[in-house]
# Entry
Amino acid sequence: MRRTGRGIGMSLIAEIVKPEAARPATDAPVLTGLAAGILVATADGQLPVEFLQAGDRVVTRAGMRVLRGIRMTRYSGAAIRVSAHALGPDHPERDMILPEAAQVLVRDWRAQAMFGQDQAMVAVGWLVDDEFIRNTEVADLQVFELSFDAPQVIYANGMEFGCGEITPDLYTAPPAPETLAEQGL
# Structure
């Protein structure tokens, strides 16, 4: 899902709403985890994601939850660089690099503008503005995917991230194509 240009333009919208049959087939897994170095809120304080282990207690929007598993994958290719404060004061608290599909909970004007919702779980790649949130390339990024008994929203680097299979109660789907046409996009 490589994007160019400024913000969410027509090419991005067309790619997002393109029918599945028109998308190139790929067997590559979609990485939605957190990169090494990102600090996760736990019962023991802020810990780098790579220090977490099954059994650790992680702070989530639903309260403290036990981490059931963690999987590390090495990745090279397109990624997203998010500058400190790009999504508001201390959101994130510091610069970070994420896989394009990392699920971020936005609860500001972006959720309203993009989805007509007060909050929305979106792939960070949707938020590229080419100034504070930019496309980049990585040669060797360690990505950690956290698993819980049920999907959770965790706190990391001052942001909220989705973990687990994203379900309708955690994710707001993109606007329908007819909605985009009505908006002149």
